[in-house]
Write a structure and sequence with these properties.
Layout: E1 2-3, E2 6-14, E3 18-23, E4 28-32, E5 48-53, E6 63-69, E7 75-77, H1 81-92, E8 104-111, E9 116-124, E10 127-137, E11 139-141, E12 144-147, H2 153-167, E13 171-178, E14 185-188, H3 194-206, E15 209-218, E16 224-231, E17 233-235
Parallel strand pairs: 10-13, 12-14, 13-15, 14-17
Antiparallel strand pairs: 1-16, 2-3, 2-5, 3-4, 5-6, 6-7, 8-9, 9-10, 11-12, 15-16
Helix pairs in contact: 2-3
Length: 236
């Protein structure tokens, strides 16, 4: 994925979906934030923010916060919409080894008894249908990456739905998309959401496949490229 980004300095994030920044010319403006999470460690005052610009004249806030560059030079993709887009590119490129070879990839397919939508439904004549749920990982504590960064009832529901998929004889996969350059392994944050931790253990026992892949970011002042291409260790 290639993005045209410009940089600014973060003043503060507020109301979840807004952030005030100082542009390179010294002016201040407000960015839209496509991230409903806590963004712990991803939104510290004076961090460098990289933002995209929408061509839609009807948008109240034309700028969108895409990435954070922290004081210690870590790069974090904070726009959670990008996780699924990056995974879709990786699926088409057969980069994710466990999911290579599927000829049909559909997004946002309804499924499950709790009225969910799976991120990706994969099918192929010679392969078992697969339901793929994607979660973005950006929480780094010490040298360890964690998911989730807050209690996630939605994530708990998705695990229950994936368990049902395996009970019906189909493949169910949970993929952690690591969008933080400082994270090299993913651990379930039992200290944040014990119920999610218990459910993921139950899901694995039921046959849900849990994997983690990391994005690589090439950042410059004209064109930024982000690619999911590296499997990383998962700790449960």
């Amino acid at each position: 994925m290639k993005l045209n980004l410009k940089k600014a300095t973060l003043i503060k994030r507020y109301k979840r979906f807004l952030a005030d920044v100082i542009l390179e010319d010294g002016a201040t403006t407000t960015l839209h934030v496509s991230n409903t999470g806590a963004m712990t460690g991803c939104a510290e005052p004076n961090d460098t923010v990289w933002y995209s610009t929408s061509a839609n004249p009807k948008r109240k806030y034309p700028y969108s916060w895409e990435m954070t560059q922290t004081a210690n030079k870590h790069l974090i993709c904070v726009n959670t919409i990008r996780a699924n887009q990056l995974v879709e590119e990786a699926l088409h490129a057969n980069v994710i080894t466990e999911l290579a070879g599927y000829s049909t990839i559909k997004r946002e397919v309804k499924y499950g008894s709790e009225n969910s939508k799976i991120d990706f439904f994969l099918s192929s004549p010679e392969k078992t249908d697969a339901y793929l749920e994607v979660k973005s990982v950006t929480l780094l504590a010490g040298e360890q990456g964690y998911f989730p960064d807050a209690v996630t009832t939605r994530g708990q529901k998705h695990l229950r739905e994936l368990i049902e998929v395996t009970q019906q004889g189909q493949r169910a996969i949970l993929l952690f998309a690591v969008l933080h350059s400082g994270i090299n392994s993913v651990k379930i944050a039992k200290h944040i959401d014990k119920k999610y931790n218990d459910l993921i253990i139950e899901a694995q026992a039921a046959g849900v496949e849990v994997i983690a892949y990391k994005a690589e970011t090439q950042l410059n002042d004209e064109l930024t490229e982000i690619t999911i291409n590296q499997a990383v260790k998962l700790i449960i």
